[in-house]
Amino acid sequence: MTPKAPKGFTLIELVIALTLVGMATSLLYAALHYGSRAWHQGERLAQRQATIALVWQRVDELLRTTGNSAVELPGRDKDHYLFSGDDKGVEFLATMSRETGVGRYIVRLEPRQTDGHQQLVLRRWLYHPEVVDGSASLPAWTPYGKSGGTASGPPERGAAGGLWYAESVLVEHLRRLSLSYRKAGQDTRWQGEWKERKELPALLRLEIEDNRGRWPIMVFALPST
User: Fold this and answer.
1) Is residue 71 part of a domain?
2) 32: exposed, middle or buried (C-beta count within 10 Å: 0-12, 13-18, 19+)?
3) Residues facing residue 151 across a β-bridge
4) How far is CA 16 from CA 11, 13, 41, 95, in A?
5) Each residue of 170-196: pLDDT tens digit?
6) What residues make up the domain containing 64?
7) Number of folded domains in the chain?
8) What is the DSSP string of 6-70?
9) In a domain, 43, yes or no
10) Predicted confidence band of residue 149 (pLDDT cuts 50, 70, 90)
11) Would the pTM of this model clear 0.85, i.e. be above it?
């Protein structure tokens, strides 16, 4: 008796098998694609959180050393207090040591329009008589609010390797910036301006929004005067 030959796959069985393999491959690709997207999103989120933390740390370090010294300005009868701010920027006197060695600097935090978008820029001038009276050969310092509003144009460079003047970009694509100030005591209202006052505010609030959304609200405590 001749043994029967083993049966092969029918066309329907082959189609079903190929369909199942295709579905499994599609699911595997989708899972790998989702995993890759999640990985990259996690990296971007970590970078964003690191940037926010660095900005908070930098501003906090500077504000913790601030004072409210008064300086004589050419053409003014009364002294100018260096801590001065509104809802779009702030200027104050601070001690800086990491970049230049121990020294006192006039520090300004303000937006700047450049290349079709806004940046949040930290500028600093050495606290020196030649800077205050305008005789130093570097980007001129004028009291905050007296220089015609938001800065614009490319970054400026100072002399002596940044000892007298330097600037750095804290936020590259700035959408919105808002600062407010609160005095010590029982008054808990936030004010949109703090100018020509002998005392410092007790708290400074900084709100930032960039091209990826709003940052957590930052509140900084200032030294008591």
Assistant:
1) yes
2) exposed
3) 112
4) 9, 5, 37, 75
5) 999 999 999 999 998 888 899 999 998
6) 50-221
7) 1
8) PP---HHHHHHHHHHHHHHHHHHHHHHHHHHHHHHHHHHHHHHHHHHHHHHHHHHHHHTT-B--E
9) no
10) very low
11) no
